[in-house]
Amino acid sequence: MARLTLPPSSPSQVSLPPDKFSAIKTANYTQIPTWVSLRSNSSSLKNPQLQQGRLENVHLVSLSKQGKLKEAHRFLEEMDEAGVSVSPRSYESLLETSGKLRSLSYGKLIHDRLRTTVENPPGFLESRVLQMYCDCGSFWDARKLFDEMRVISMASWVIIISAFAREGLLKDALKLFSQMQNMGIEASPSIYISLLSSLLDSSYLELGKQLHCHVIKSGFYDNVSMDTAITNMYVKCGCLDIAELAFNRMNEKNAVTWTGLMVGYTKAEKQEHAIKLFCSMVKEGVELDEFVFSITLKACAGLKDLEMGRQVHGYIMKLGLEYEVTVGTPLVDFYVKCRSMESACRAFERISEPNDVSWSAIISGYSQIGEFDDCIKIFNSLRSKGVVLNDFIYTSIFQACSVLADLNLGSQAHGDAIKRGLVSYLYGESALITMYAKCGRLDYAYKVFESIDEPDTVAWTAIIAGCACHGTASEALSLFRQMRACGVRPNTVTFIALFTACSHSGLITEAKQYLESMSSEYGVHPIIDHYDCMVDTYSRAGQLEEALELIRTMPFKPDAMSWKSLLGGCLIHRDFKIGEIAAERLLELDPEDTAAYVLMFNLHASSGHWEEAARYRRMMAERDLRKEVSCSWVSINGKVHRFIVGDRHHPQTEEIYSKLQEFKFTRTSNENSFLTEDDASLGLLERKEQLLDHSEKLAIAFGLISTPNNAPIVVFKNLRACKDCHDFAKYVSKVTGRQVVVRDSNRFHHFKSGECSCGDYW
DNA sequence: CTAGGGTTAG
């Protein structure tokens, strides 16, 4: 008899891919036999009748539970040589592990071994093999095995139908279901549950009703799981009223049943109803679990009802569930949505084992309150700690990079996400399009867009918005037509992007047509933002009467944005009469809006009405309002250099200012010299005469001296570009032959040979 | 031996 060598007790040499370690973590280590004792008295070999290979099989199962399939396979071969037979229990475990680890190759090896070495395998092993193929996602193998089965157990029917249903292969699942019926086999509740729960939206309602009829005819009474599945089918198909009926008819309900209905109401934006259900649960004494709190907190978050959420939080603490990640994470999100970042952080710290979802919730929290630097900080620390990152996190990071205009970090994170295989999700890709577009690389944005096989509404919207902010309106409109041709439906945001493109290029007729047809032709009902865009389009184009008329006749009460857009137009086109109206209305709606004061100041100052101008400055001072300090920055070799007006802090200040002097740039038309936002931010009226040290010019000058002669210069600015700096950039591009790109708070300006892509229209 | 529920984002 061959000698049986047992494996060394050192850690296994089998290396599993890192993402499969979870299986090892969940392994039951109590199953590990002490193989030292196995080795010392390998009595089973000496006395086969006594042990019948029991210990070897225990060891085999142990290896399998630890996910050590390679080692298990080696051990199997040794058992063969030793003539020790493999127990059905071992086969069962090996098949289960192969499935869990989605290791088709080992699964197949076990299946082959079972076929060739065991003459009449017990029926349950056959269905275990089937399960393994389904778990590995190899439906072809599963189907082949199934078709070859001589006797099909109910378990096998359940396994294959539920696998097909879960995988979205509904047609195949239904075919098998009717095959069962034709064979006179009655489907079990599990089969109905699988089929019902694969019906994800209202397009399956008819099918769902038919299945419901089958269930009734089959006479299954009071099966909580199945009745829950029926209720949830109606929920997912959008029939909340029917779902509620089905729910009320149930004699016995559990937490799962309640949760399903609450999800439905929350999705339908009827959060109050969901919370009412939660209260009933408490009243009726239903045993609550973590999932109930997840959805309850989501409902509170949707309502931004801080009081309600706090009460729920108290209840959670009473039950000691705040440490659970399934409760703690939605709790974090709830506080984030209620703008209570401090509480969110506290809730986060209580989670005993935060997962990637918890991290994405807290990162998106920082992103939502505008603390983008914090987002990046957390991201970097997670990256270095090797925490699992998901596509949600990357989406937030790309968003942060768009706002910070940090192309460097953005493209690094992009590469990182590719390595982790997280980019293939549309959400992430759309965020990438926006990130590249807002970092000034419309070309990369296009590349990402073109790499998407079937762009969805959001992806199309992202690229259209990208074109809009770069001022390529005709491209935006053409993309919109292509989108329609591809059968993708535009949504509210798509139209905002489209209108933005029109307003930046003065396409009044087009904008008007879209506004009139969006509801009838595209099924998107205009909201006030769309009208505000139209007001903006008219205003920029100088059609101020039309803009005012639209504000007065539109089906919404004008908001601050309506008047702000109009006021902006009045400034460009020097209309005091309408400007005054707009400013008054704007200040009524939002007395803290600094833009109103600055715009009115400029409007009067630009025509020499200094007293009127001063009145607005005084008002601003009295209300203790300050404009955000204007700031421009340029990134050189990954390092960001920031400038404010008159800045002399940069180590190369002398060089920068002498470069500026070189241009001897003088204003082209004196009448157009407004007091700019730069100046207004400092409150220095006398600045009017010396505009050479605006942050934007400093950044451009620094770009000129720090990059090769032919390199384009990309400058970012937190406020809108002023006319003077705009002229300066044009001049620089003409004299130096360099391409200058300026992103202001509104859009991109591409300067080339003395011309700007905005056509002086911004 | 199978089946029912939740949280993150553009």
TrEMBL record:
Domain DYW: 686-762
Domain of life: Eukaryota
Record carries keyword Disulfide bond: no
Annotated protein name in UniProt: DYW domain-containing protein
Swiss-Prot/TrEMBL PPR repeat ranges: 153-187, 254-288, 355-389, 456-490
Originating species: Ilex paraguariensis (yerba mate)
Family according to the record: Belongs to the PPR family. PCMP-H subfamily.
Keyword Zinc: no
PROSITE patterns, per database record: PPR
UniProtKB keywords: Repeat
